[in-house]
Structures
1.
Amino acid sequence: MSVRIDEVVCTGCGACIESCPTDVLRMDRERSTAYVAHPDDCQVCFLCEFDCPVDAIFVSSQEQRGTP
Amino acid sequence: MHSQVATSDILVVGGGIAGAFAAIKARETGADVVLVDKAFFGRGGASALASGVYATYMPGDDMENRLAATCTAPHVNRRLAERFILRTYECLMDMDGWGVKWIKEDGVIARRMSGGGGTDYPTNAMMAEGGPQMMMALRGHALREGVRVINRVMITDLLTSDGAHPTGGAIVGAVGIHTRTAEPWVFRARATIICAGAFAFPYTPVGSFQGMPQTSSGDGVAAMFRAGATMGKFEFGGGGMRPSEFFCAPGLEMLGGLGCRFINDAGEDMLSLDRSQGKYTHEDITRGRRSALGNALIKEAEAGRVVYLDARHFTADEHRLVKQVVPIVVNTFERAGYDLSKDVVPYRPTPPGSNGNNGGGARVNERGETSLSGLYAAGNCSDAAYISMGQSLPACSVTGAWAGESAADFVRGAAATPPDPEQVDELIERALAPLQREDGASFPVVHELFQRMYLEEMGNVLHAERLERALSQAEAIRTEELPRLSASDPHDLAKVNALKNFAEMLAPALTVLLRRQESRGNILREDYPFIDNENWGCYTVFRRRPDGGTDFWEEPIPEDAEYPVARVKTGHPFFR
């Protein structure tokens, strides 16, 4: 997975869920924090990280799968 | 079937820079405008990930120099190029007024050479916080102007006045599905402007051959093709390069402009090597045409050498500037452990035909009109009236503005035609059908078939035999797998529909490549290793027939649009 969300820091504001171009993130209603629902679709564009007001997201660009 | 309905004078599909300009310029005339985005207006598509450089004309620039840089091929509309070049400055100043942040010196937008974006641009403006800030500023201005925005709805098809695909009538709106709920949407509009981006291989798994963004699957291109619009410029899209080890745009507008080098794993400056062999010059590549760089990368890869981007000689100030203007690229490098001031970054070529950036869309004129009444297109899902799409952001903004203004003119005299309810139901049913198929072909399975086709059949250098094999595989997937595509949930449904759109455009795209019996730019033909200005100073265009087949034909470049080149056949530098 290339997106990590710090559940302690996340305030559940939903900014990242709104902005993700490939719709990877969803809200965990019970905990009121964002979580990664569709990890395979992350395109590593950092927009969620840029848009997070409390710096709770870290996106990694390293390949998770083998290079063909 | 219950649907959400949105009615407006003008529907704009896609919220990148082209869609933003189209919507704002139409709205400025008083038209009622709805903008719909598959993701979130300002965050979806390619513009928010743009390489932060706007290749603009500025007062005092040498117009002849600019024209020469823009019209590098006989396939660029030189007559229109001057109008385009002048309009880029207007768009730049519009954006400055709307809150886009530019690098400024003494309060004036700074100018700097850029490179690698297609050709050599003497002056350019740089975004002070990259593409992400630019798009949020455009979004903010569009909302302030009263553009109505609908997010997370993917347009799946266009509605026609005669209820037919392809239509003999006009475009009267569109249908779509919500990407989180699968709720159907119906859009009624007197004019529809498609700005939904390039046709490209969608949702690529990390580690594969295509770079960002994944969302440009050609949804708008495919919808226009199905509705019967004439399509063009598919032979000039695709090819390019990206960092080998991770997902990232190449960032060359900025890095190339500052004079980055490319070296091979023997530590040699591969460009110097090439220059000594009379193939590519350093100028061609660092500040020059991206196709020349792509071809040089292919050459090195074929010789078994790894190529690295080298920016270690930049000054500390230049490194700071790069980080400011292309934040996404530098972030990607840093997270993968590359520090541009100390490390070189491996790059590799991407295969031709795998993306339609720089071409591949509906044929439009300089008013953004397609061949269908009521349908406009702009940016990378149009052929951009054959101005140079190498200047992607400027071409998208200018063609967006042209389309917005023309559509606004059009709706003033046009009556609203209600959509045919049967067609609405049929198209929505088709879009939702994959949800009903429990044991059909899944997204990863079909996606993998395409990926294998690209890797095994296409290669970086094309040949008719391999193209024919790729085409027959693409046709087999289209006819056998697409009707069985299944989706597990609404998120998957949007992906499956995107894959279907890509699949439907692939066969015509490969056919156009096959028809073109020459090499040009990044399109390299082992069996036709020459640039043929004698016979191929023309465009291949195509249109869907009512029986489901596709008609292809060549159209000569209009004489008044022609860049004066000798009508001769010369060896392509790659094969020399």
2.
Amino acid sequence: MQLSYDFPADTSVLEKIGKLVIQIGQKAGFNDVEISDLQLVLVEVCTNAIVHGLKNDSEKNFQVIFDWETGKIEIFVHEAGEPFDPLSLKDPNIAVPLDKRQSSGYGLYFLHKLMDEADFRIGKDGVKTWRILKRKKIEETKDTP
Amino acid sequence: MKITEQITDNITIINLDGRLDAHTCESVEAFFREKMENGQYKFVMNMENVEFIDSAGLRVVLVVARDLRNKHKGDLHFALLQPAVSRVFEISGLNNVLYIYNNSENAVQGFSS
């Protein structure tokens, strides 16, 4: 099943996007942890589109497409704002003490860590597209005596 | 984001209610900065009613905690992390560098130990 939404480039839409992920995640049979992982990553991607791509210009829109079936959710985020390369950020080193921690870069780190597939491309028309995909983990069943 | 506070033994307990994301993090950081300008350097952040945090929210707690420790000999303790928030702290490794307690009373007492 597929659903498409256009949102204005305003961070106030993030809560609504989060609620959509919860609804769709439940329909696709995901558990609470999987849904919260997907919500976190989609909010990061949309925040990038709003803040870095569209510069918080609420007159401009970005598009989110949810494509799901039981056990699998694929999401596309399309945005045609300012050029930027989200892949240029280094992942933070999470093993260092607080005073040596970098304060940015966690969004992309979550994306790499929590999604089964993720890719980013810029079309010839300048439209930037993120694709993220998450599959439900097959839960191990315990052998009963 | 709704923010309320109470002061116990010179320690400010901040109660947050809402999402800590790119939409709300500026107001939360501004709240802390104002308190720090007034000389308050020991805080407990009660997260009982925060069900979501993203990297923008993490950045705020990270820089505020770091400033409190490094510049003011204070700290920011956390209480009652909800499951989704606790998971983000664990994935980002912040649970290893911040003090996290199971309730606000213990988080306050943590400043004495």
